[in-house]
């Protein structure tokens, strides 16, 4: 991990090594935090954050679902992120805002604990590797099921909920795979440990619906729009486990993974990235890097001071 010089913590810019919390921070003990994964890309017009406002809105929504109010407005968080990128001198980077219950009363009732916020940025390549983006990754179905809406809140990007993904990721990695795919509580395909799933069969693109316990990914929604703009039919419906192995193409989307093809599931070969995946991947990459004016409003340009 390539560190940065500064982190924004509760309204102040502090040195990376000084961004600390108390050992009795509530979120450390009970997972009472929410976060976002966002990326800024180098474009011809300077650094630009992909769908920044949508990410900040989801951060606020995630916090609301766990009875937390943002301690800073979305506008303040946006401006702080801009300044943090500039101060660290990044042209492109990964962005991690975190809102969490801080040090206060111990116990399961968090309502008297302060709500705090931090933003970190660092340089981070493709989550599943550049080779994976190019030629596809290998995955297995996890023995762990995706958290059920009867137990937690899949729509919230909450810190504690990611223990579910951590277990599935460890299981897949120890077994020699790049990624794990989780089923929902009904046995339908849900998502990867940090990605949404898309399946292509006979020219139609399918993806699990929000009712399948997925996190409604922002890159997921972006890819759906791009695919439809390219003329592809995209259907949101439940997907049976066997459909992945029998599909023509499969790809995963997420802020960290961007758009990564899946070439194998449970040692059954799906095949190298196909024409639909490649077309959507190329158009998506153009949108991320500001090369398609059609999606220019998805980019939040970071104001960089003139060097003159």
Overview of the molecule:
By secondary structure, the chain is α+β, with helices and mostly antiparallel strands. The protein has 2 domains: 6-122, 2-Layer Sandwich (D-amino Acid Aminotransferase, Chain A, domain 1); 130-293, D-amino Acid Aminotransferase, subunit A, domain 2 (D-amino Acid Aminotransferase, Chain A, domain 2). The chain is 27% helix and 28% strand. The protein contains 8 helices and 17 strands. The protein has helices at 26-30, 52-65, 74-88, 130-135, 163-174, 218-229, 241-245, 275-288, and strands at 6-9, 12-15, 33-35, 38-43, 46-50, 93-101, 115-122, 137-141, 179-183, 189-192, 196-201, 204-207, 234-236, 249-254, 258-265, 268-269, 299-301. Strands 8, 9, 10, 11, 12, 13, 14, 15 and 16 form a 9-stranded mixed beta sheet that branches. The longest helix has 15 residues, at 74-88. It starts with 5 loop residues before the first strand and ends in a 7-residue tail after the last strand. The mean pLDDT is 96.
Order of helices and strands: EEHEEEHHEEHEHEEEEHEHEEEHE
CATH architecture of the largest domain: Alpha-Beta Barrel
Rg calc: 19 Å
Number of strands: 17
Question: Looking at CATH, which topology of the largest domain would you report?
Answer: D-amino Acid Aminotransferase, Chain A, domain 2
Per CATH, the class of the largest domain reads Alpha Beta
What is the residue-averaged pLDDT?
A: 96
Tally of distinct domains: 2
Distance from N terminus to C terminus (CA atoms, Å) equals 33 Å
CATH superfamily of the largest domain: D-amino Acid Aminotransferase, subunit A, domain 2
Instruction: Classify the helix fraction into a percent range.
Output: 25-40%
Give me the number of helical elements. Answer: 8
């Amino acid at each position: 991990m390539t560190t940065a010089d500064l982190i924004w913590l509760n309204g102040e810019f502090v040195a990376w090594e000084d961004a600390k919390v108390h050992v009795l921070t509530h979120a450390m003990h009970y997972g009472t935090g929410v976060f976002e994964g966002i990326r800024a890309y180098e474009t011809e017009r300077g650094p630009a954050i992909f769908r920044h406002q949508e990410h900040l809105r989801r951060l606020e929504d995630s916090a609301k679902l766990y009875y937390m109010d943002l301690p800073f407005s979305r506008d303040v968080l946006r401006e702080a992120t801009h300044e943090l990128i500039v101060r660290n001198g990044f042209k492109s980077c990964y962005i991690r805002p975190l809102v969490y219950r801080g040090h206060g009363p111990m116990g399961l009732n968090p309502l008297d604990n302060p709500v705090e916020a931090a933003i970190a940025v660092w340089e981070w390549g493709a989550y599943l590797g550049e080779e994976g983006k190019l030629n596809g990754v290998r995955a297995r179905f996890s023995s762990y099921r995706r958290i059920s809406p009867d137990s937690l809140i899949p729509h919230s990007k909450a810190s504690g909920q990611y223990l579910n993904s951590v277990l599935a990721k460890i299981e897949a990695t120890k077994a020699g795979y790049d990624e794990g795919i989780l089923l929902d509580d009904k046995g339908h395909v849900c998502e990867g440990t940090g990605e949404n799933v898309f399946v292509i069969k006979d020219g139609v693109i399918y993806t699990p619906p929000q009712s399948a316990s997925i996190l409604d990914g922002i890159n997921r929604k972006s890819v759906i729009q791009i695919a439809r703009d390219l003329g592809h039919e995209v259907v949101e419906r439940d997907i049976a486990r066997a459909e992945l192995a029998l599909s023509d193409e499969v790809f995963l989307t997420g802020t960290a993974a961007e758009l990564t093809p899946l070439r194998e599931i449970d040692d059954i070969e799906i095949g190298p990235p196909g024409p639909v995946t490649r077309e959507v991947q190329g158009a998506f990459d153009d949108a991320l890097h500001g090369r398609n004016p059609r999606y220019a409003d998805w980019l939040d340009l970071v104001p960089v001071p003139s060097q003159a």
